[in-house]
Amino acid sequence: MDAYLLRKPRRPGIFVSAQSAVGVLRKGRLAAAGLLIATGLLSGCATHRGQSLAELPAKHSVRAERIVIHSDSPIDQKSPILTELAELRHDIMSTLNLQESKRPVIVYLFRDQQRYADYMRQKYPNLPSRRAFFVGTTSELAVYAYHGDNLANDLRHEYTHGVLHSSLKNLPLWLDEGLAEYFEPPRDVHHVNDEHVSRLTAAIQGGWEPDLQRLEQLTGVAEMQAMDYHEAWAWVYTMLQSDNGDASLLVDYIHSCKTDPSPKRLSQAVASTLNTGKTRLIDKVAALDPAGSTVVPAAFRRPGDEGRAFVE
């Protein structure tokens, strides 16, 4: 996820995630990730004296399967935005074998950054300034965004959160974010995020090793660093792109999170093959490295790897 995920304590019906407002976080965007927990974080409207509350986009609306878009600018059923989000929803539901939810995800699309910022500042004065937000409550699953250079990525990421939260509960933080990162790239790159690949490649060359058990201990975004997001994507990518049964295992685990209020950790479900899972992750990242220069830790060396570089 680009920047912030906010979960209010003892308010289980509220979930907020957000995309960065400026380019500080892409190519290092995740380094600024953090968690804000504060009383009144989502506390209604705030207006300045003599200033009326900015209104939500409502001039133009379009509906499709479990999607509603309210836009300042003209939009119709043939809009590429609507088409792409509909395809994304289908991809998410089919990949994870999720049952359709009756809850739609509402997208509020502002005409420009200023109008978006004015609304968010007045409606949610305690939230940080970010490019896009997903706000999930018991009454609405809403994505807020504006027309700009990053709109497509922002919508795919935040809309993924919306689809997940329409069907699932109790997803671990790392998995929620790993799935959003997995479905964020354009369809034609097949879930490959170049930033994740380059950062993980550099880390592996420095001797880094994946650690799912450590990742699972993170319960708040304030604890998550950039590498945690990269690794979360890598675990999801490695398992869902596997042909050895790992994809089914991950999907089954995701389904268990829907029915179990306190699901066990994924590392427990794959305990007997966790070490080989780490090796597969390293191999997946190495295979995606366009330069073919990934340095693999010696601990993950296997027969036939003599031609590859290793960190001792």
TrEMBL record:
At the top level, the lineage of the source is: Bacteria
The DUF1570 domain is annotated at: 161-245
Enumerate the Pfam families for this protein: DUF1570
Task: Report what the protein is called.
Answer: DUF1570 domain-containing protein
